[in-house]
Each structure stands twice: as C-alpha cells, then as structure tokens.
Input
Amino acid sequence: MKAIIAAGGHGTRLRPITYTLNKHLFPIANKPMIFYALEKIKETGIKEVAININEGDKEIRKVLGEGKKWGLKITYLEQKGGALGVAHVVKNAETWLSGSDLLFYLGDNIVLGSLEELVEKFKREKLDCLLALSKVLDPERFGVPVIKNGKIIKVEEKPKKPKSNYAVTGIYIYSNKVIEAVKNIKKSDRGELEISDAHTYLIEQGAKVGYKKITGWWKDTGKPEDLLEGNGLVLSGILQSKIEGILDKEARIEGKVIIGKGTKIGKGVLIRGPVAIGKNCEIENSSIEPYTAIADNCKIKGTEIHHSIVCEGSCIVDCSKRITDSLIGRNCLISSENSSKPSGHRLIIGDNAQVEL
Output
C-alpha cells in the first residue's frame, strides 16, 4: 500500500494568511499541519508517500524534503491546470501507484485516533474502498453517506438536505479499482472531478465498499475557526509539561505547558495551559491563556492572549485589549495605539483581513 496526501489548493477561506503561506504548512500547536498526516501514515507501516502540490510549489518541497525525518520516501506530484477536484488527484497519480492499494489523506485534516484500524479493516474484509466517517453538526459542508441496512448506497457531495449527520472525512483507502472510478466519472457543475462521485461509481459497479466511524475527534481545518479548534484539540492532548526555557522566579505556570529552548519567561507572566510556546521567545508582563500556541522567535510584552495562534517572528507589545480567538501570521507587529503619535488606531491591512477594534 502507498499513500497520497493532497496538499494543493489555495486556502481561500484562510486569506490573507494563505497569500504567503501554504495552508498545509500553517502551524497547529507549533507544528506544520501536514506533519500530522505524515506521522499518522508512518504509524501504518506505509513507506512510500506522494504529495499532491500546486504547480510550481517549492515551499512544501523545502519543508518536507525527501521524507527522511519520518522514514518515508516522498514523491511530489504537481497538480497542473488548477483546481480539478479531489478525484483528479488520484487520477493524476495512476503511473506512480502502478497498481498498489492506496491510503488517500486530505492534508488539511487532523485526526486523534490511529489509522492502523482503518487499514486493518480494509485488508481483513478485502474491501475495494473504505470510508472513514465522523458525526458532524454541519454535514452539508461535506460528502455525506446515504446508509441503508448498514451499507453505504450512495455518497452525496455537499447536499442541501443531508440524509445523515455523518461526514465522509478526508481519509480514504482504495484498491486499484479506484483508478477505473476516477476515469469514468464526469466533472460536476463546478468543473471538478468529485471524490464522492467516484465512491458512488464504485458502489454502483458492485465494488465492495465499507466504512468505519472514527473514534475520538476529527477536524477539517478549512476555516479560521476550524484551525483554532484543531489547535485546541491537539493542545488538549499534552500529557505532561516540558519546559526547556528560562523562567523568572516570579513567573506562574498552571496546567500542561510546553516551552522551547532559548525562550525567556520574565516577570509578571502567567501561563495557563494547555499552551505551547516555541524556541527563542521573550515573554514579559503578560498572560498566556489556555489553547494558545506561540511559535518560535516571538516577543510578547504587556499583553493578554487567549485561544489564539501566533506564528513565527511576531511581536505583540503593550496591547490594552485582550487578544482572543485570533490567527496572527508570521512577522506581524501588534502594539498599543499609544505607542506612536498621533494617538489612534493605526492599521496596515491586506486583502480579506478581519479586525475588531
């Protein structure tokens, strides 16, 4: 069995951050999102992984390299011609697959449980397709399985009136029959080859299609609030604190906290876990509240931050207002309105930004 991670697209719902950072490299609990996919795949024993990337993308190649960090062999497959659909990603990989079974993982998904149970069920029941399902509040956002007498009889892509409250997650396992499926479906109204249509094709052709409900949580991180929730879920899994930085004797630490090497936690600091703080940060006279991740080389002074993600190299100084539910990109500067003259709110804001004053 081989694996494909879909890491193309442009993350339009996460702009402006994704104008300069591929969404699959956005940090969740201070680790690029795609790392979680690679770690889950490694646990299954799979050795060969193809990563589907946008045409000309060099950023993901630079970060992941050849996969040696995970004991994997990574091949990069460019998605030429723009967004052609998830099923086209599989079609594009036909030569590379060369008849192997396939574990297909959408790179912006994060799961708590292991994928080993899914692979074992697929092999044990000699399936042609195994879909991982998760109960959701908004199934109309996803591919939704129509289940009758314990079997999936159809998969509907983003239906206006879902027939179940389960979503087909972005984790699929296939035999090589999937290539026949993606070659025989037609483009949808939005001009893409839908993976849900491939699943329905397999069902209609009599292929053996099964499913398994994911235990624990699963998160599709397509929107800013999803990223924050995913970040919080991962942080909640911190089993014990790991403090490698320098703490002032007057700093207070509560709950499970990770603090990287070279980070200095100064006077007047309160950190309430679960919280992750990267390397070489400086934090003074600030409150870092639960479900916050602060990446490497950040400076936080005179500020309260809660349930937020702060990316590498950002500086937040003397903010009179509490920062909450926020995504802050790389090398940002946030400071008090009184830090310069004339006083007032000074804003330099790019396209599709969101600001509350």
About this structure: The two ends are 52 Å apart (CA to CA). The chain has two domains: 2-223, 238-335.
